[in-house]
Write a structure and sequence with these properties.
- The chain is mainly alpha-helical and about 110 residues long.
- It contains two helices and two strands.
- It has helices at about 1-15, 25-80, and strands at about 90, 100-105.
- It has a two-stranded antiparallel sheet.
Length: about 110
């Protein structure tokens, strides 16, 4: 009975202490889990950063290709004396060797 009372008193003192010491054996698993968590978070950050870099590069490439497409179509329009005041649809060939067409769009 007196040992039970001593244990309860010891627990109460620990619960009310400002600093409670925890042995390495007790905290080892928690430290290892935290280390694995930090490594996983760092790995995820690297993956996401690399993804954003590739996405940015791809978007820049798409933008540049769109600009070049517009420039080449405009150059063809000028070369073939297509009236710039009118609206045309530019039909590109679907296979190599076929012709392309500027087809005038009439407002309805």
């Amino acid at each position: 009975m007196s040992q039970e009372i001593d244990n309860q008193e010891s627990e109460n003192e620990t619960a009310e202490a400002e600093v409670v010491e925890v042995s390495w054996e007790d905290v080892k698993e928690t430290v290892e889990i935290r280390k694995m968590l930090l490594e996983a978070q760092q790995y995820l950050s690297q993956i996401l950063l690399e993804h954003e870099k590739r996405k940015s590069s791809l978007l820049s490439n798409v933008e540049e290709l769109e600009r070049k497409l517009y420039e080449t179509a405009t150059a063809l329009q000028q070369k073939h004396a297509v009236n710039p005041e009118w609206t045309y649809e530019f039909k590109l060939p679907t296979q190599e060797g076929e012709k392309a067409y500027f087809i005038r769009k009439v407002d309805s």
